[in-house]
Structures are given as C-alpha cells and as structure tokens.
Amino acid sequence: MKKHKILIIGAGGQLGSELTQGLWAIYGKDNVIATDIKDPGGILAQGNFEILDVLKQKQLFDFIAKNEITQVYHLAAVLSATGERNPKFAWHLNMDGLIHVLDAAVEYKLDKVYWPSSIAAFGPTTPKDNTPQDTIMDPTTIYGITKQAGERWCEWYHQKQGVDVRSLRYPGLIGYKTKPGGGTTDYAVDIFIKALTDKKFECFLSENTYLPMMYMDDAVKATIDLMEAPAEKVKIRSSYNVSAMSFSPAEIAKAIQKHIPDFAISYNPDFRQAIADSWPKSLDDTAARKDWGWQHAFDLEKMTADILKNLPAYL
Ligand code: AKB
C-alpha cells in the first residue's frame, strides 16, 4: 500500500489548525506533521508538531528528506492588511516560501502540493458580481499581487516541471477555534466574539460592503476534496474559484441579532475599506463544482447558529 506522509507549513494559523485535524482523520496522526515558526500550543499538541521556517530552504529540504514527506500543504503567508504595512516582507514570505516548496516538490518528487490563493488576486477592474474563473486580475494589495504571481508560478511548475500542485482562491474564511491574523475579511470573525462578550461591535468596513465568505468547515472540506480528487479531474492548475456565501456587515449583524436581539453594530471604515472595495462581491465557482464536485454546506444562517453555539467554549 502506498505510504503517505503529510507536511503542513503554517499549521498554527486559522486554517492550518483545522485542516490539520481534517488530515488526521484521513491519514492518522502519525502520518501528519504540523509545522510553524512558533509553537501555537492548543490542539496541535495532540499530534506531531515541529518548528519549521519555510524561508530557510535547506531546513525545509532536509526536513522533507528526513521525514520522507510525500505531500505538502503550504499555508504560511502574510495576509492583506498586514501585507500593506510590511510589503517587502509579505513579498519575501509569500513568494520565496512558495518557490522553496515548489522546488522541493521537484527535488523530492512529491506526490502533491497544496497552496492557497485568494479573492485578493482580483482587483478593481475585475467584474465584481459572480466573478468568473478567468477574467481580469489587477490586484492592488501586495498580498493580492503575491497571490496572482503565485498562481502563475503554480501553473508554470505544473506545465514545465510536472508538479501536481493544486490551489483554491479562498473567499474570507470564518472560523471560531483560532484567531485570524491580519486579513480584511476578519471582521466577520471578530463580530461573533464581540457579540458574545460586549453585545456591540465597531466594524472597520461600511455596512453595505459585500464580500464572498466561507465557513471554516467548508474551507477544510474544499481543500481536502480538491487534494483527494484524481489528478485528471484537476483541470485548473493556477487556482480554482470556490464560493459558499456572500454578505455585508449589515447582513451578518442581522443574522446575529436573530440570536442576540440586543446586539448592536456601528461602522468606522479604515484603510481596509479600500482593500475590500477592490475585491469581488461574489464568485462564480462553476469550474470547481463541475471538475471535482465542490459543494458547500453552510450558508449565513447555518454558520451563524453553529458559531454562536460553539464559540462560548473558546472564549
Ligand atoms: C484577507 O482578508 O486578507 C484574507 C483573504 C481574503 O485572503 N482573508
């Protein structure tokens, strides 16, 4: 039987810790190694966790060789808001990290590589509603620029070097188990925490700012579904649009008020408004649904009920 050994880079982040648990369920804890530049503690301590810096190429290559890694999920990245504050470092981590992983895939003949792109790869002249899979991409954030360039690198390594690299353009990801770090869509996570702790929330986006969003359970499912799909079904090697729901701050506040009637939202847009305004409002993910059977399970109502039920245990 074929042996699988999975490496997750950037496992301490919002998606990483939940994806690690999803991969434990498929491959067993012994066959999954979660890594990050610092130990996040918590749930990851229940499996293999090691310190690994993707920017140190030799450390990465030695790690892959020593542990006989067969698949890499490379999640380490600087997100949109943080990237604007430190653009050179965002470029360095987001690009050099990806290229190190893709070179490792060639050198060690890895079975598969996963790398996330984002709606941030689109820009102000991209069609905003039901944004097509193939369209204008003119990202204005450094994070978005790294995502668009990263997509081109993935396609190139697939075409020219035969790397089985797979990718999704994530919308805003909403989970409650770990805190997000430095994104523009993160208001949709903070709002639940503030609704439960303070019954009020000041939003850094304006009330009618629509963005595509996805519940973390669906994001983990989309990622694993794509990675488990037979290679011939993965027809797009840049990155797939994936979508689940689209809402504005006013709409998510209303959904929360159905459970917490005295919850109040106010608006004080900051520099992140311009970032959000440059992104799609909703995505067309027909290709993902057709090629490898993507289906989401959570809409705004279902997600809101689930988070408000489970989040108190994490506060
Ligand atoms: C961000 O807001 O930067 C991320 C993203 C949409 O990629 N959540």
UniProtKB/TrEMBL annotation:
How far does the signal peptide extend, from start to end residue?
A: none
The Gene Ontology terms for molecular function here are: L-threonine 3-dehydrogenase activity
Pfam families hit by this protein? Epimerase
One GO BP on record is: L-threonine catabolic process
Question: What sections of the protein cross the membrane?
Answer: none
- Residue ranges occupied by any NAD-dependent epimerase/dehydratase domain in the UniProt entry: 6-242
Gene3D superfamilies reported in the protein's UniProt record: NAD(P)-binding Rossmann-like Domain (3.40.50.720)
Supply the PANTHER family for this chain.
Answer: L-THREONINE 3-DEHYDROGENASE, L-THREONINE 3-DEHYDROGENASE, MITOCHONDRIAL
Give the family this protein belongs to, as stated in its UniProt record. Answer: Belongs to the NAD(P)-dependent epimerase/dehydratase family.
What's the name of the protein? NAD-dependent epimerase
| Highest classification ranks of the organism | Bacteria, Pseudomonadati, Bacteroidota, Cytophagia, Cytophagales
